[in-house]
Design goal:
The structure holds three protein chains of three kinds.
Chain A: H1 16-21, H2 31-35, E1 42-44, E2 49-53, H3 55-66, E3 70-75, E4 80-82, E5 98-111, E6 113-116, E7 122-127, E8 129-136, E9 157-163, E10 175-180, E11 193-198
Parallel strand pairs in A: 9-11
Antiparallel strand pairs in A: 3-4, 3-5, 5-8, 5-10, 6-7, 8-9, 10-11
Chain B: E1 7-14, H1 25-40, E2 49-53, H2 57-60, H3 65-68, E3 80-83, H4 89-102, E4 108-116, E5 120-121, H5 125-128, H6 145-159, H7 163-176, H8 191-196, E6 199-202, E7 204-205, E8 214-223, H9 224-230, E9 235-244, H10 258-271, H11 276-279, E10 282-284, H12 290-299, H13 308-313, H14 331-334, H15 339-354, E11 369-376, E12 381-388
Chain C: H1 22-30, E1 38-44, E2 47-56, E3 60-63, H2 66-78, E4 82-87, E5 92-94, E6 112-115, E7 119-129, E8 135-147, E9 154-158, E10 167-172, E11 185-190
Antiparallel strand pairs in C: 1-2, 4-5, 4-6, 7-8, 7-10, 8-9, 10-11
The chains are: A mainly beta, B alpha/beta, C mainly beta.
Chain lengths: ~200, ~400, ~190
């Protein structure tokens, strides 16, 4: 822990403004610099391949999707259905109590209409991702239905895609139903549900 | 929280924020750190410890990025720590450095945040999209914009907000940034320009989104005793707070960032702030998207739920005339968004504003208390810092 | 005395016990660039339970050498010379060139010095497997070289094994073929 030596003065007012006039560091390149040899650069493409263990919860969830069913787990302490399912409740940190069957219908809690791909290219047919809370087989548990927000955010749901003729007619609170792939095409994946469509 | 001793910010530095930098990540880190050191009057040998904040290794394309950046951060031969909570890193890093000193372990600390997103080809999204769940979300072919557009739509629908009101954030911040020497995307635009810009993922329009950026920013922290030796205008860290919500983002209401509120309350309690709306003079909430500034202002308890757009429309957040200037720096929308360094840019702004050294961006009326906040991950982390001058 | 047993290196894609058609699945995934992965079903009793999800994370990185690094590569490409930068206060000469001294943080970008081209071999190693653990057709020798006039080392290929402390010299590509890359140096070899 050095004491202030005599060559250290009270800090002068070296502000952003005074330094800026002496030029801040940062040289902007253009995309064409990389194409035309305006800059040297090296390229690396690491091979990142994974075999992820699903764990018990997601393993069972995917296995049931293959059968055309959606399942969740239930925490009796918090009185909530967990979907995507997990083996412990992250709110109270205890084991879940049981597996519960769920319906394949639900409510749109929010959605978007996306006109670009992940690498920023424009597409003609937009994708409609949505967060859909899934209907429980039994009536919703007390406390899990938030009545203050449109449609009520019920807490248990996942993201998926919605297909609709005119996206401008879609609303938060619309009820939707899963459209499944034929049995022979299901692999045990979230895409065993092709998409959700609006039901009256 | 009862810290052992007071900590102050005594210097700050920043690079230009650019789209594709020629400089290496180390060179960017060094430039910001050197500027911060010079402004504090300290030399590297006077720094006791170093904290570096930087977001995914995949952006710069270097495994163990913290270690790689250590000598560019002045960390050679010193106690060194790298931290990372996505975009929240920029405020989280000074928090980490704060307790290095508040605990009594060290007297001075250099804190620098850096990001070089342009290394990640063809677009940094190829790293970003791995934030989605590998089993249930990535197979749907997602786009990072989805999480913002889904949250923005929920926020708008819950409170009946209009796109035009949200667009005003882009107009304000890009204009504010014209006075920031590091700014990447500043300019004078209108609400109509924002509404006419292409829809990327409805309701998000292009001019509502911050750019991808390369850049670095740094501050120097010192204990009370050292700070008083170094400067007659130390900027005290009055309060810190941080909180992480569940990664099960589809199981919680996205219309309100409860994790920001939790972090804000922690920071305000420590700072002894009972009425933030009255006691905070400047706010730098995290604004990667236009609606996020408003969303976070509500989380910071600086606006009532659903009312931030109204406060904005009434001019309350205007830099020159408002009673609570918000993002006087120009924010991420105007200056740029090098993920970890963006939050640090805001902390640097508080430093300059509270010392009256913000030049053309200066908020008038001798502001004394200010808050900066950063956010990141899957809509999960809130990191908040409250600074003040006597 | 117990004899040390050496284990034979496994080939890539280790078999998972009980998994079905692991290698054919691997080859299908390798050709699959779509964001959708594949689930691998493991037989457990009478019901097939999904236990593994395969996926890829495609990342491509473009690295610029930086303001200082570019000076070194320019000198290598255009003059075939080795450009370093010097910190006089700390007595360190850095090759490749650096913008700043890591020890005292001084700006040393313009403190240029031509070093080498010969140097001393500080260490070397012979690599016989690639990063996936597969045997290389031809072993590759790498060395840590301290160029004359520097006190830092840098990594490059060696034409063949040599003793530590040996004098080495660079073999450069033809000027017309140099691109401004560390590979403008083909390798180092024992100096004559």
């Amino acid at each position: 822990m050095n004491a202030l030596s005599k060559d250290q003065t009270m800090s002068e007012s070296t502000t952003l403004e005074t330094t800026a006039t002496n030029k801040l560091v940062g040289t902007n390149l253009r995309s064409r610099d990389f194409r035309t040899g305006g800059v040297f650069f090296e390229v690396a493409k690491p091979k990142l391949e994974y075999a992820w263990d699903t764990g018990k919860a997601i393993g069972k969830f995917l296995t049931e999707l293959k059968k055309g069913k959606i399942v969740g787990t239930y925490c009796a302490q918090c009185k909530r259905t967990l979907v995507p399912p997990r083996m412990f409740c992250e709110l109270c940190f205890k084991d879940i109590d049981k597996w519960v069957p769920l319906k394949d219908t639900g409510v749109i809690q929010t959605f978007s209409v996306c006109f670009i791909t992940w690498d920023m290219k424009r597409v003609k047919n937009p994708q409609i991702p949505a967060v859909i809370t899934i209907d429980t087989v039994h009536p919703p548990e007390a406390g899990s239905l938030d009545k203050t927000t449109p449609g009520g955010w019920r807490g248990g749901g996942f993201m998926h895609l919605v297909k609709v003729k005119d996206w401008k007619s879609l609303k938060i609170g619309d009820r939707v139903k899963a459209v499944w792939k034929p049995k022979a095409q299901r692999k045990g994946a979230i895409t065993d549900i092709k998409y959700f469509e609006v039901i009256k | 929280m009862k810290p052992y001793r007071k900590v102050a910010i005594v210097g700050a530095g920043i690079t230009k924020f650019v789209h594709k930098a020629k400089e290496t990540p180390k060179e960017l880190s060094w430039a910001a750190s050197k500027m911060a050191l010079d402004s504090s009057g300290l030399k590297l040998k006077n720094i006791d410890a170093v904290v570096h904040g930087t977001a995914p290794d995949a952006f710069d394309g270097v495994h163990m990025k913290g270690e790689y950046l250590s000598e560019g951060s002045g960390g050679w031969n010193k106690p060194y720590l790298r931290c990372y909570v996505g975009g929240g890193t920029g405020v989280f890093a000074p928090l980490e450095a704060w307790y290095h000193i508040a605990s009594g372990a060290f007297d001075t600390c250099l804190v620098v945040c850096e990001e070089k997103m342009s290394s990640c080809q063809p677009h940094p999204q190829s790293a970003f999209i791995n934030i989605f769940d590998n089993f249930l979300e990535r197979p749907l072919g997602p786009n990072l914009l989805w999480i913002f557009s889904l949250e923005m739509h929920r926020y708008m629908a819950t409170y009946g907000l209009k796109l035009e009101d949200i667009a005003k954030v882009s107009v304000k911040n890009k204009k504010n940034a014209m006075a920031h020497p590091s700014a990447q995307v500043s300019g004078e635009i209108t609400v109509q320009d924002v509404m006419n810009s292409e829809v990327l993922a409805w309701p998000v329009h292009r001019l509502m989104v911050s750019p991808t950026t390369d850049g670095a920013a740094a501050v120097i922290l010192a204990s009370e005793e050292r700070a008083k030796q170094l400067t007659d205008k130390p900027v005290w860290i009055d309060g810190v707070g941080w909180s992480l919500d569940s990664a099960y983002w589809t199981n919680r209401d996205l219309s309100f960032p409860r994790y920001v509120e939790k972090a804000a309350r922690m920071a305000y309690d420590m700072a002894g702030i009972k009425e933030p709306k009255k006691e905070i003079h400047i706010a730098e909430p995290y604004d990667p998207f236009a609606y996020k500034e408003l969303h976070h202002l509500e989380g910071l308890l600086l606006s009532d739920k659903g009312k931030a757009p109204e406060d904005l429309a009434l001019g309350r957040f205007d830099r020159a005339t408002g009673n609570l200037p918000v993002c006087p720096s120009g924010g991420l929308l105007g200056v740029g968004n090098p993920i970890a360094a963006a939050g640090m840019m805001k902390v640097c702004e508080l430093f300059w504003q509270l010392r009256g050294e913000a030049g053309a961006r200066q908020v008038r009326g001798k502001p004394r208390k200010a808050v900066a906040q950063a956010w990141g991950d899957l809509m999960q982390v809130g990191t908040v810092i409250v600074c003040g001058v006597n | 005395m117990t004899k040390l047993k050496t284990r034979k290196l496994r080939s890539s894609s280790p078999r998972r016990r009980g998994s079905s058609s692991q290698e054919s699945l691997d080859s299908r995934i390798r050709g699959n660039d779509s964001p959708e992965g594949q689930s691998c079903a493991k037989t457990q009793g009478r019901t097939k339970t999904v236990t593994v999800w395969h996926g890829k994370i495609p990342i491509e990185s473009w690295y610029t050498p930086g303001v200082a690094g570019e000076k070194t590569l320019m000198a290598l490409k255009n003059q075939g010379s080795f450009l370093a930068t010097v910190c006089g206060d700390c007595n360190v000469t850095y090759f490749p060139a650096r913008m700043f001294c890591e020890r005292c943080f001084a700006d040393i970008l313009n403190n240029e010095k031509i070093v080498g081209p010969d140097g001393t071999l500080e260490s070397w190693s012979v690599v016989t497997v690639d990063k996936d653990g597969k045997k290389l057709k031809k072993p590759q020798t790498f060395g840590l070289i301290k160029l004359d006039g520097t006190n830092t080392v840098f990594l490059h290929k060696l034409k063949s094994q040599a003793l530590i402390g040996a004098r080495v010299e660079p073999v450069l590509k033809d000027p017309a073929k140099r691109k401004g890359s560390v590979n403008d140096i083909l390798h180092f070899k024992a100096a004559v």
